[in-house]
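Reagents: none. Just compute today. GNAT family N-acetyltransferase.
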Amino acid sequence: MMIRRACYDDIDAMAGLLSELFGIEDDFLIDTDKQIRGLTLLLQNSAATVLVAEVEGRVIGMVSMQSLISTAMGEKVGLIEDMIVTADFRGKGIGRLLLMGMIEESERLGYGRLSLGADRRNSPALCFYKTFGFETSNMGLMYRIV
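Predicted 3D structure written out:
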């Protein structure tokens, strides 16, 4: 098993992972064309990092992070999204390696804070993130399609 930076050849596999993720989250719709477009934009964005977990040539997990600027902190911060390990490989420490890889990357980039979005009803994921020092925030995430 290997954790590495994603490349364009991984896009189809990552779109499949996003379909799996969005299938369990009510806020997002599965639209492979949009997910492929979004993944392509992420890989083109120098302020974004996408890591994948690969087993025997198969991409079985991913996580993305984008750089933002926090006026509250007066510095760059990271926003983690798209954290998914395919069902057959969960519970094997792969998610831990992906998230640790992203935390290390955020430290290398000098980010002052990491934030992530997680479905409030996904208790196992929330407990998992707390083991890495993530805390529940009073700030709620709202969105509007434009």
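DSSP finds four helices and five strands in the chain.
Action item: order primers for follow-up constructs.
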